[in-house]
Protein 1
Amino acid sequence: MDYKLKVLTEKDLPAIAVLCQEASDYMVLATGATNPPKEAQDLLTSFPPQKRLEDKTLYGIFDSHDTLIGVLDLVRNYPTTKAWMIGLLLLTPKVRGQQIGEQVHAQIVEQIKSDGGTEIRLGILKNNPRAQEFWERQGYTFQEEKIGTVAGVLMPVYAFKLSLTQPVQN
């Protein structure tokens, strides 16, 4: 399936809310409830402590009809310089399993490398084995179990990392 990435802004809030409604299974899994308008606003404006909004980019994933089918939340230089954090990759259920997540990830990896990034980090809900399998297929490795926050709710997450630097061959 063809797709395109574009940076989302406040004017995209209605489309983001529709996506959050269509993909509400994620928030129900994470928190037991869903509130698409609030989730849409949070996707646009939430970022980690000690970071600024300028460090965050929320990409929209659009199909060939210019319909929002997913989002990718990305924070640069977090938790360390040259590390990037994927806060969320969320696709509407109707396009899951069509290699879009893999393609978007490959595109973002190339962008991060060209911007000098050396690693990508992300957190996976402990109760989301499908997401863990997806990220492991992309080359991410388990680092530790910790407590993370999703929509203001504390929960166990697995921290994963992908190194973008190749080890020196001897």
Note: The chain has a mean pLDDT of 92.
Protein 2
Amino acid sequence: MKTVQMRRLTFTRLLVGTASLAIIITTMSMAAAYISPVFLALFFAILLSPILYWLQKKGLPTGLALLVMIIGVIGLGIGLIWFLSASFEQLANSLATYQSQFQARVADAQAALASQGIDPSGLNRGAADIEAMAQSLIDYLGRLGNFAATALFLVMTIIFALIEAPNLRTTLQQSLGEDHLLVVRSEEFSQNVIRYFGLRTFVNLITGGFIAVMLWVLGIDFALLWGVLTFFLSYVPYLGIFLATLPSVLLAWAQYGVGMAIVVIVGVTMINVVAENVIAPKLIGQGLKVSPLLVFLSFMLWSWILGPLGMFLSMPLTVILMFLLDSFESTRWVANLMAGSSESSQ
């Protein structure tokens, strides 16, 4: 009898949990326009919090350290907005020139195929699809470059999150006690998240910086823009580097031909392989593993829930969830399942 009751209770909990999860996901999807910027701002606050702690360790009072951080966030935000807006505007103005260059390259390729007795109609259809995809990508990036109101909201949310960060642990300790399991686990969780994303940011900076320098040396237009894009999209494993590389490859093809496009692909691949397989394991370690299937599923899920910003936030949110699940024995098996391993990620 007790076994039947336990099974019913387990089934009821599972049913309630599934229904609650469905309601949460639906609500988040409906409010994505408001939730996405908040998540993005909190993510940036996590990235910036080590700088705040470093300033405090150097002897700066908390108030002065916060003031320095606020000035830095505002300055960085204004600079990034100006750079993106100016770059996207120049790119949009040059789009007609790149399209004509791209069409000329396609015509040359068609002539070369025809001279070898190969039907070039497939190339023509493929080129049309690539042009349409590139136009859609540029239009989307252009909209990202014109978001002054959203950017102001992001900056203000980041500032308030940084102001509240030093008081959060103290408030939790006063409410629950220093030895409470939630306090101990939350401290471990926050340290793991901050460490992971801090080192991840450094690896992304190396990747984006080297790619920008390589593109500049090769003479590819907007090299710095593609480097910045690579920096941000590299938070999405596997898929991010592809999305970041696509515009520069198309631009290299339009400017110099298919040979330069291949050079860009090879160069980006080599830089990414070194960054992800040599530098990242040494800095971040082998502890956190994310299965490729989980990367793809989280990319699709968060993109559907949060819209375009969900593409960028997919892995940060998934990694935070994995760290949270790994912080407790009862849910550690879920984190191991998500990682595709039988060992703890810690």
Note: Residues 287-346 form one domain.
Protein 3
Amino acid sequence: MQKRIWQWTGLNEVTSGAAEREQPDQGEAEIRIASIGICGTDLHIMSGHAGFGEPPLPLGHELAGVVERIGPGVDGWAPGDRVCIDPLIGCGVCRECLNGNKHRCARSGEIGLHFPGGWQEYLVVPAANLYRLPDAVSFEEATQAETLHCCLGGIDKLDIRLGCHAAVIGDGPTGLYYVQLLKAAGASKVSLFGMREGRLELGRRLGADVTVNLRSADTASDATAPETQDIAIDAAGNEASLKLGIELLKRGGQLLLFGLPGHPIQADIQSVVLKELTLAGSTNAPQVWPRVLELMASGGVRVKPLITQRYPFEELDKAIAFARSEPDEAVKIIVSHSQVLGGTELP
């Protein structure tokens, strides 16, 4: 049996075709893909700026779908179950994996980044990487559980106290999720810093108390004054955003580093030391997946307002082209199979 597939085949190139469906092996399940999120990481890989990934490869690590078949030794799952997929795969035998920290495994990789991803009709994955979708979470929304779980893992590394002031630097999807998570965790004032007015307006709708357009910021305003924030989250990952985060923090403040620069950058370590700042880096957080799905189901975090464009699977190349050419308009693009776009569940 064959399946339709899209592959990254070269510098900013995607190609459609067909491939043989795989039989799920011991401990594996075949998933019929319903929806895929287009992530900025996909674009970085395709442009050669990510430093990993080798074409030809079907990308796509923000995934949701339905169990189609299960392999030997798989318990707790059956065809028809609605699922999202943790794309992270560890070696399973190192100290970090055995301690439940597969995201720190030196030999780990991700579905859709290092291994074949969701740009296809069917995908075989380890059954251990599946999470059951609550009825209240749609396939489109479920694609964002991957991004949200990374953000929630970052929140867990912070000491967020009721009444604290927090700054989020970066108005991409992760920055917009961090705004919501900080408010849910008890921050009384959250300021969002970015460069795109449409994204900043969305941030206000999602709970940001203050938004600052860094292209036209009034440096005398309260939000941009130095040493006004208890917490700063750098969701942009560049030298300017890191500098701003350090400047904004009060003495004894906390700085979460989340955005990836892609190359070494300069940092004002003297200010970090003299202000006694606490720095933490954050990537994946496999232990928080169940909590993320509970948050989504309860409405504690809203995903739908971030979905700005929808494309059918047959037009995945157009979705990629739009994401690349219109970054200000494309907050989050979702590619789905026809039944999902038509508003119904997959059979």
Note: The first strand starts at residue 2 and ends at 10.
